[in-house]
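Example A, followed by Example B.
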Amino acid sequence: MDHPLSPASAHIPPSFWRSAAVVASLVAAVELVLLVVTGTALLFRQGSSAPARHVATPATSKAQPHAKPAPLRVHAVAAPKLARSRVGVMVLNGNGRHGAAASAASRVRHHGYRIRSVGNASRMSYSRSLVMYRPGYEGEGRRLARDLGIRLVTPLDGIRPAQLHGAQAVLIIG
């Protein structure tokens, strides 16, 4: 004869749920630690593909007494060939403010440069001032930029030498 099983108690004590929550939290914490350790190991392994740098210590420097350090690469800046009074500058307004080019031309003239022309740039959206120089006049362009406190110096771009009216450098006010 079949006897039905008596149902188990449907009531689970609260202490069981507390201990189950603690166990689940511990498992999650262990998983988090494993993920952090694995991620860190992967990141450091990718970064270590670069060659290791050798730091000279007294012991290693004695082993190679005649080793010469590698020469530093220095960008050679051309020295200006012309005096300021012989350098022609074209001053262009590139920011759209009325009178900006004339005011800058006055500052340039004050430093001893010759003003060849003053006008507007092809666009009025320059956010920073810049100095451009003709080929062969890098030193003069860099000196002009240094005199005016301008950091952006570049070879002539977008202006043909025939448009310079004899100027060796162009100052665009941004």
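Example B, a separate protein, is given below in the same form.
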Amino acid sequence: MKEPQTLDEAFSLISNEALETFIKKHKDYGKENVLEMEELGMAIRNSEKLSRLKNLLLKKLEPENEFLDETWIDIAVYATIAIMFRRGWFQKLELDEAK
């Protein structure tokens, strides 16, 4: 991975990782898991991820099933989905299948 030279470049790299994660997981799980519980469901999922993350950080443990960076990315993805949901985009738009 290329080392960023500026904060905005670093932010862009992480944002691209979040986009890749979103696309990969969306292809696996679809929309129904989000549409079923709506914004509250996303808040609950993020709360669970944050609780797990806090536990690992306090114990200074690296999880066995995913890296801490992946947990942070998941939190960012759910936050982005929540904003898309609030704006009505998540409900009506689909993935660009060309990607």
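On Example B: Residues 4 and 11 are 9 Å apart (CA to CA).
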